[in-house]
Amino acid sequence: xxxxxxxxxxxxxxxxxxxxxISAAIEVVNVLADTRxxxxxxxxxLPWGTAYYKEHGRYMPPDALDRLRTFDAGLFGSVGAPDxxxxxxxxxxxxxxxxxxxxxxxxxxxxxxxxxxSPLTTVDPAKGIDWVLVRENSEGEYSGQGGRSxxxxxxxxATEVAIFTRVGIERIMRFAFEAAxxxxxxxxxxxxxxxxxxxxxxxxxxVAVEVAKDFPDVTWDKMLVDAMTVRxxxxxxxxxxxxxxxxxxxxxxxxxxxxxxxxxxxxxxNLDPTRKNPSLFEPVHGSxxxxxxxxxxxxxxxxxxxxxxxxxxxxxxTGADLGEKGGAGEEAAEVLMRCIxxxxxxxxxxxxxxxxxxxxxxxxxxxxxxxxxx
Amino acid sequence: xxxxxxxxxxxxxxxxxxxxxISAAIEVVNVLADTRxxxxxxxxxLPWGTAYYKEHGRYMPPDALDRLRTFDAGLFGSVGAPDxxxxxxxxxxxxxxxxxxxxxxxxxxxxxxxxxxSPLTTVDPAKGIDWVLVRENSEGEYSGQGGRSxxxxxxxxATEVAIFTRVGIERIMRFAFEAAxxxxxxxxxxxxxxxxxxxxxxxxxxVAVEVAKDFPDVTWDKMLVDAMTVRxxxxxxxxxxxxxxxxxxxxxxxxxxxxxxxxxxxxxxNLDPTRKNPSLFEPVHGSxxxxxxxxxxxxxxxxxxxxxxxxxxxxxxTGADLGEKGGAGEEAAEVLMRCIxxxxxxxxxxxxxxxxxxxxxxxxxxxxxxxxxx
Lengths: 374, 374
Ligand SMILES: CC(C)[C@H](C(=O)O)[C@@H](O)C(=O)O
Ligand SMILES: CC(C)[C@H](C(=O)O)[C@@H](O)C(=O)O
Description:
The structure is a homodimer. Chain A is α/β, with parallel strands linked by helices. Chain A has twelve helices and twelve strands. Chain A has helices at 18-36, 50-56, 64-68, 86-92, 94-98, 166-181, 200-212, 225-234, 246-259, 300-315, 327-345, 359-373, and strands spanning 6-14, 40-45, 73-78, 105-111, 130-136, 140-149, 157-165, 187-192, 219-224, 241-244, 267-271, 279-283. In chain A, strands 2-1-3-12-11-4-5-10-8-9 form a ten-stranded mixed sheet, with helices on both faces. In chain A, strands 6-7 form a two-stranded antiparallel sheet. In chain A, helix 1 (18-36) crosses helix 10 (300-315) and helix 11 packs across helix 12 (359-373). The structure holds 3-isopropylmalic acid (2 copies). Chains A, B: Pfam families: Iso_dh (PF00180). Chains A, B: This is Tartrate dehydrogenase. Chains A, B: It comes from Lasallia pustulata.
């Protein structure tokens, strides 16, 4: 009997609805593994987050990154709590992993789903939206530098310093061109703001021109971030793959998900494309304390994130190319996505999407669908 | 006979389609003055821009700001040319006026017009969109600081430094609360990104809380810039007045205009609310060299900018409050806006809005409409 791959996953549910949606995702993935029998998977719970912070004075232990490095990937819930300032919780956990672990590519697939409508009349219903947004995830506006002087004085000054490096820009640019190359349309849009920001943004423009030379089969264009929002609204069909800075793509990816009608189910991957470090997969939604504990959270973003994770760890065996086939993991991811589509199309949804189900109802429907499909 | 006000305006058409739309606007405003006879107006042409740069090595003369200060207001076209890097042309002219002249409030009215549809299904057609976006226009991400080290080396680093001051934040916050207070709904949304940016953005949050105390009749809420794009798409009706940083509102205001279906006609005001310096009014659209010289540019953004200008100089006599009545100027602005609405509703539009007219055709229709209305 040929051996099947075994995936070791760190689960970090963290705060708010994080634990609810991550446990739903683990259940679904376990059913997937049990029915397909093409891989085995093991989740290890890491209890980091605000409760940990209140007990230990920090969001994760000092050796957290070393511990994470012993896994094939991480599945992350959401961090943030009403009684801790957001910048403390986020820099305590999520941003303390993304940058230091060099998870420099944040990938956000954006697509329309059956049963979920785009609110845009400019979207051709027959085609829908199908974009891949690539966000630089390790530097730029999120370098964490800057400070405040003369606290609370009328002459107080505060700075935010965005730091861009040629190395950092080049690696994300190369990743984005490869991602575009792997898609049927092979088109990349590079987003900057080089008319008003004269240093890092001009460097982005220059690096784009240089890296593009290595991808003669990829067509590409350049947009200013403000004009890009207009293009997303007015000409959604002209867009395929997009790359930009940490802040710009944070904004554009939320907008994109909203335009696809799928903000509640959007997934994101924090990748180290060199595969030296395990990548981290997370729903785009936040900790949503207003609905925490009610069992009504939409688990689909966590399912989709788990699918991206399976695809990535599957490809781990065959290389970092986004376009390559990844064996069991990728195949399982495809099944998972197909089941999400079917469950959505059947109208089995939580209230945020206009449905009547709770977290359990959607999870159960997913498990049934997986068993039927297998 | 009572004396009527006289307005002295600097016209800076600058580059691309700038001269075409500004001369159309001047024509329309002159017809307005001639027919209403409630004010007189005089435009002085300042030939600054890329042609000036090519002759003199700078975009405007060294005493440009002093010369501008002799006028009641400025009407600006657009700056930028294909053969000059954008950051040179923009920092040479527009950004060299906005910051140094302390035109710290950039106001962008966003609304739907008869005959121009919002591409959003979430917009109630009976209500349309009616927002006011207030952008901090003198500091923040556009402070112009930062640099590049080790040019063209693999270890090159580039920085963009955003500088925020308590003074700068407080004055724009106060302006925005006043703008909200003057509107029927009296609601303000303060946009920041204080979960990932820990210095200037947290200062913004703090100042908002303090300034809000002086406006007990204004309701307000706080949004992260990424989440704000989602709200604009999904719940447009929940928005009234919005304030944010130079970069954030640059992005959100383009998005807003696109969501209202009116990006081609959007206007913006660069205001010094203290009225120590003359304010500058400009269409949001760029220099559009692809259509320059063809006579097809949409002049409506310039008309709308001229209306905002008349409103502002009119109010100059009665104080800086956005909500106050401004006599002849404000009344003329109202007529101008009504005529824009009628011309749009009649389908007299340029090709960018799906119409069949050229610049002259729309301008002529506007002049006719003004004569009919008066
Ligand atoms: C949670 C927050 C720090 C984060 C970000 O701004 O990066 C979020 O908005 C995201 O998009 O991942
Ligand atoms: C022309 C450019 C510098 C400008 C900006 O980014 O501020 C424009 O986009 C605007 O919105 O006024």
